[in-house]
Specification:
By secondary structure, the protein is mainly beta. The protein has a domain at 331-518. The radius of gyration is 23 Å and the shape is globular. The two termini are 33 Å apart. Residues 1-11 have a biased composition (Basic and acidic residues). It holds the Pfam family PhoX.
Length: 667
């Protein structure tokens, strides 16, 4: 997002999560904005949902507009009274629904877990408690039940200024107030490391309300120190060997786990995203990884882990970053199992790994690289999913083909295989094996001429209508000379949603078609060029699409990241978006988060009677709804959600939304 706040009120970990650093894609590959503009300017007019814009509401007979509104409203797949957009320190849900906090940062997960005490935190306690900044949420049924299962949750990153008392000081320099953060102690860094990773916890619905089962036999915390195995083509390669692991097969921990997925065979996959922020120090002069790390923005040094642990210091362990940026698979049925980093799926800033079983039984995973001007990928397993033999699926993710998307002006998309020896992926370009190609996935995609996207995040295949939805959050680095009346805007703050239709409905296809489902932003501002239907209300539009979900009826739900007082005049939230018929491109607000928070998840239980959402980094940022530019930190928070107790800090939490009286959501 475009950061409207003074840098003096922003904290380094917050800026890392927004990923608003300099563009690091060095290629002249075409951007998605260039392609959309060329495609639709060549047509001379926009069809279908793209023809609907804010300008359309100001021209033409009012009767026609009213008729269009009525048709769209009548054809909507969503039946609920819309929530009013706004900003305050609480969460809000549509009328007729309950939104109950299920899990908070620090909540005990085991029978012997200590209660949360924010003034006496320790790594040992945190490793037995719910972690920080919950992001992806998944559900794995126990015995096929929609009311008893395992909740799997990623803990993406930490905000020490919100977590720890006494580390922030406000000083005045040149007439401006500035927030300064004291260096963290080793003990505080250890708490951070334990607060990263993921949670697996048994939950049960009783009397219409969800409860945590603290003595669940499969409950587990995964952290930045959990032992993991590298598997697939990169395992054992010289470029992943370190002093601590000369074999190149054993990694300790995972971090910056953003979105993720649950596989058809019931395992939990975690996507490692902004890994660059955890490394500091300098590579030895002339080191062969210099270009590789530059392409990923390593080292960024937002975290202080390198001051206490050699493996995060490039001068001491130059290969360590190559061991991160992967997809991690966890067997939830065995809390003692070793998670595996599945290197065949590529190394980049992964946002999610949602999957679908194709017609021939192979499994397709869609993967976004969350950086401005980076790419959209999909991975197709070599083997087929066996629903009757769990063990047969154990290593499906170690063999397959990774592809990167190249979008064309004629509305087609090519999925280009990223395979050593094919095209430019040869020794002449510095690749010695498939392992090299995967370690440098971004550079391989550069050479293949992939399309530079506007920060691709969650990508969701829809098994009901056969489409694939790509969330493009924004691109504040887009220049004015790329603007076209039909699409992407200079400093594209509001993002897009792309809809892909794979050839013949085959998700393994190497060709497909694409369309813009939505250009986001306020449709009342003509210059924004948003394309919501005219039936979308002032509460229904949104910007910065990030995570998404498709419920069992095939309906699309979109969560946002980056809205706020100055950017949009509303907090982030969850919107229901119609994708079919007369209601296509109509959006309705269902849930919104407190000030400073991002909307993560979302996830629908198998019976669609619960929506789980993750409220991440509430109270973060340098603005509140009463006055802009104020830093928010432990002692002076913009909200104390969800406890609202003076002795408790703000706490990222998972919320369970249910319909009052029971029943399916939005039906």
């Amino acid at each position: 997002m475009t950061d409207h706040r003074s840098p003096d009120t922003r904290f380094r970990t917050s800026l890392l999560e927004e990923n608003d650093g300099p563009a690091i894609n060095p290629t002249d590959n075409r951007t998605m904005g260039d392609i959309i503009a060329a495609r639709f300017s060549r047509r001379g007019f926009l069809k279908g949902s793209l023809a609907v814009s804010a300008i359309a509401a100001t021209v033409g007979p009012l009767a026609m507009i009213a008729a269009d509104d009525a048709r769209a409203a009548e054809g909507s797949a969503f039946k609920f009274d819309e929530l009013e957009a706004g900003i305050d320190d609480k969460h809000h849900v549509a009328p007729g629904y309950d939104a109950d906090v299920l899990l908070r940062w620090g909540d005990p997960l085991f029978a012997d877990s200590p209660e949360f005490d924010p003034t006496k935190q320790s790594a040992e306690a945190q490793a037995r408690q719910f972690g920080y900044n919950n992001d992806y949420v998944g559900y794995i049924a126990i015995d096929g039940s929609a009311e008893h299962g395992l909740l799997v949750v990623n803990h993406e990153y930490t905000n020490p200024h919100l977590m720890f008392p006494g580390i922030v000081s406000i000083v005045e320099k040149d007439g401006k107030k500035k927030a300064e953060v004291a260096p963290l102690s080793k003990e505080q860094v250890d708490v951070e490391m334990a607060a990263h990773g993921g949670t697996i916890v048994e939950i049960r619905k009783e009397g219409g309300k969800w409860q945590v089962v603290r003595d669940g036999k499969r409950n587990r915390r995964i952290t930045s120190t959990t032992e993991m195995a590298l598997s697939g083509p990169v395992a054992g390669h010289d470029r992943v060997k370190t002093n601590a692991d000369p074999s190149g097969t054993k990694v300790f921990g995972t971090f910056n786990n953003c979105a993720g997925g649950v596989t058809p065979w019931g395992t939990y996959v975690m996507a490692e995203e902004n890994i660059h922020g955890y490394f500091s120090g300098e590579l030895p002069e002339g080191h062969k990884e210099a270009a590789n790390y530059k392409r990923l923005g390593i080292p960024e040094g937002a975290y202080e882990w390198g001051a206490h642990y050699d493996r995060f210091n490039l001068a001491k362990e130059p290969n360590e970053p190559n061991r991160f940026g992967w997809i991690v698979e966890v067997d939830v049925n065995d809390p003692n199992s070793t998670p595996r980093k599945r290197t065949a799926m590529g190394r980049f800033k992964h946002e999610g790994a949602e999957s679908i079983v194709a017609k021939d039984g192979r499994v397709v995973f869609y993967l976004g690289d969350d950086e401005r001007f980076d790419y959209v990928y999909k991975f197709v397993t070599k083997g087929a999913f066996n629903a009757n033999d769990h063990a047969a699926n154990k290593d499906l993710l170690d063999e397959g083909t990774l592809h990167v998307a190249k979008f064309a002006e004629d509305g087609t998309v090519d999925w280009l295989p990223i395979v050593f020896g094919q095209g430019p992926l040869t020794a002449e370009n510095g690749f010695g094996s498939q392992a090299d190609v995967l370690i440098e996935t971004r550079r391989a995609a550069d050479l293949l001429g992939a399309t530079k996207m506007d920060r691709p995040e969650d990508i969701q295949p829809n098994g009901v209508n056969g489409k694939v939805y790509v969330m493009l959050t924004n691109n504040s680095k887009r220049k004015a000379d790329q603007v076209d009346a039909a699409n992407p805007r200079a400093e594209n703050a509001f993002g897009h949603i792309i809809e892909i239709t794979e050839t013949n409905g085959d998700f393994t296809a190497t060709k497909g078609k694409w369309e813009v489902l939505l250009k986001c932003g306020d449709p009342a501002v003509a210059d924004v060029g948003a394309t919501f239907s005219t039936a979308t209300t002032a509460n229904g539009w949104f910007g910065m699409p990030d995570n998404c979900a498709v419920d069992s009826a095939g309906r699309l739900w979109v969560a946002t990241d980056g809205q706020g007082p100055k950017a949009t005049g509303r907090t982030d939230g969850l919107w229901a978006v119609d994708t079919e018929g007369a209601a296509r491109a109509t959006s309705k607000l269902f849930f919104r988060v407190p000030i400073g928070a991002e909307m993560c998840g979302p996830l629908f239980a198998p019976d669609d009677q619960t929506a789980f959402v993750a409220v991440q980094h509430p109270g973060d940022g340098g603005e509140d709804w009463e006055g802009f530019g104020r830093p928010s930190y432990y002692e002076d928070l913009s909200t104390r959600w969800p406890d609202f107790k003076p002795e408790m800090p703000v706490r990222p939490s998972v919320v369970a939304i249910t319909k009052q009286g029971g029943g399916k959501i939005a039906v």
